[in-house]
Amino acid sequence: MEAEFALHVDGRRRPLTVDTRTTLLDALREHLGVRAPKKGCDHGQCGACTVLVDGRRVTSCLTFAVASTDVEITTAEGLGQDGELHPVARAFLEQDGFQCGYCTPGQVCSAVGVLSEVEQGWPSAVTPDVRSTPGLDDEEIRERMSGNLCRCGAYVNIVAAVREASP
Amino acid sequence: MIPFDYQRATDAAGAVATVSRHRGAVFLAGGTNLVDHMKLGIARPDVLVDVSRLPLDRVEPLPDGGLRIGAGVRNSDLAADPVVRERYPVLSRALLSGASGQLRNLATTGGNLLQRTRCRYFQDVSTPCNKREPGAGCSAIGGWTRYHAILGASEQCVAVHPSDMAVALVALDAVVRVQGPDGERAVPMGELHRLPGDEPERDTVLEHGELITAVDLPELPVAARSTYRKVRDRASYAFALVSVAAALAVEDGKVAEVRIALGGVAHKPWRAQRAEQALRDAPATTESFRAAADAELAAAEPLPDNGFKVAMARGALVSVLTELAEVNR
To answer: Does A62 contact B105 at a Cβ distance shorter than 8 Å?
Structure first.
């Protein structure tokens, strides 16, 4: 069934008419030409489709576009400002945090989400005491980034990039 | 995926009325399990009622000292809630050990409880499954059973419940608040999920159209000394082979109060009542914990590929209780 609505993507209002079955990922890539988020598994297991929704990282493949009308969607493409790369994207470049690059936009969005979650004091599964305010050592980075797979295996440099981007 | 009509609910009563009237209608919240199941052909709703904007996104103190968790509270927000971390660390830990950061940001408290088994045969529509299609037969029985049940299974179904959060909630004696077409009711966590019996298609006691609106935690001082341990094939982002939620209070070297639930072992989060009974007034020692684990697991009936789960559950249970006893010292 067709639905007519608008998404708010990378600072712009984008009207579209799509079938209600269209996921946010497919709406972005196939209907709006926003190709930073990638389709890997399409089942929420690989993280390649990660975008920020109202600043929180989510898998866009498990969200219907029609259910995303009243939120601000930010893709890796929309993270930078005034032609400058976002500090997290720059850290991935500097630390060589990728090989083929397919998972990278999802990794970058996820890392931006991780830094925000740590700033808010959220614990993780490896935080020794959930009552404490966690820091961001390599073990914490690996745990928090576990929803993003990299089949090239650039994990060592991805951890270094997230470490470099953290305050 | 079949075409569907999307409706955004503005109040719980309206959402319940719509879904109960229409057999093909379902509630949509975080979508992490439902959307996946629609893609896989496991779920084929023709109406989605989106309840994610309902005002059910608060964690609030209850007058009796407990805590009310709105059904729409996201798993990540609940895990990070300061009161949950302070008073019910087992719940925070269980949530954090489930899924990934992205999925926890989407998944809700109500949806987490209603997520369905990750049995490979259930998820593959080309293989017979009694849970997907009653009477079709069980492909896991006689198939690959590494991830399946060791307790409470039936000849119809050997699947396990996948939630970590639910295991903690069972140990905490949480109460699920449900709104239906005829009003509200409260379901104790231990009674929400079912054993498969001869109706494996029914995961819970809820009827079509009933909406979980909140989960209430009782005031429970023992929960301040609680934890969750998950044993799995990967260090992160994998379902449990076996998990343990436990809370323990020790006085004068003896067990004063204990709560134990196991995950990954049955069709429902498994409250370890026999182990709890064995520990009542027992010395808080590793020997007691071993005896308690043995008492619980005596009823285990492992399948050809998952005999290791019995030893694993025993080891995890003893290890968790020993750790909590140390903290009590």
So the answer is: no
**Domain identity same for A34 and A98:** no
Number of structural domains, chain B? Answer: 2
Please list every residue in chain B whose beta carbon sits closer than 8 Å to the beta carbon of residue A58.
102, 105-106
pTM of the model: 0.98
Chain B residues with beta carbon closer than 8 angstroms to that of A19: 3
The Cα–Cα gap between B172 and B223 comes to: 7
Number of domains in chain A: 2
Q: Which of B1, B33, B102 to mutate to test the interface with A (most CBs of A within 10 A)?
A: B102
C-beta atoms of A142 and B28 within 8 A:
no
Give me the total of CB pairs closer than 8 Å, taking one residue from chain A and one from chain B. Answer: 113
Mutate which of A68, A74, A122, A132 to test chain B, going by most B C-beta atoms within 10 A? A122
Can you state the angle between helices A155-165 and A104-119, rounded to 10 degrees? 40
ipTM: 0.98
Mean pLDDT of B184-207: 98
- CATH code of B255's domain: 3.30.390.50
Contact present, B243 and B262 (Cβ < 8 Å): yes
The verdict on a CB contact (< 8 Å) between A113 and B102 is yes
- Give me B269's structure tokens: 């989060």
Q: Which phi and psi angles does B291 have, rounded to 5°?
A: -65, -40
Q: Is the pLDDT of residue B316 over 80?
A: yes
Residues A92 and A114 in one domain: yes
The verdict on A109 and A156 lying in the same domain is: yes
CA distances from B312 to A100, B8, B94 (A): 39, 45, 18
Among A43, A78, A113, residue at a domain's last position: A78
Residue B242 sits in which domain range?
Answer: 223-328
CATH at B26: 3.30.43.10
Q: Which residues on B lie below 8 Å from A125 (Cβ)?
A: 93, 96-97, 236
DSSP letters spanning A41-72: SSSSSS-TTEEEETTEEEEGGGSBGGG-TTSE
Among A3, A131, A147, whose Cβ lies nearest the Cβ of B101? A147
A113-149 residue pLDDT tens: 999 999 999 999 999 999 999 999 999 999 999 999 9
Instruction: Among A39, A60, A78, give the residue marking a domain's end.
Output: A78
| Same domain, residue pair A94 and A32 | no
Mutating which of A58, A60, A69 best tests the B interface, going by the most B Cβ atoms within 10 A? A58
Clarify whether residues A71 and A38 are in a common domain: yes
Domain residue limits at A64: 2-78
Distance CA B50, CA A113 (A): 25
Q: Is B117 among the domain residues?
A: no
Q: In chain A, whose CA is at the least distance from the CA of B82?
A: A131
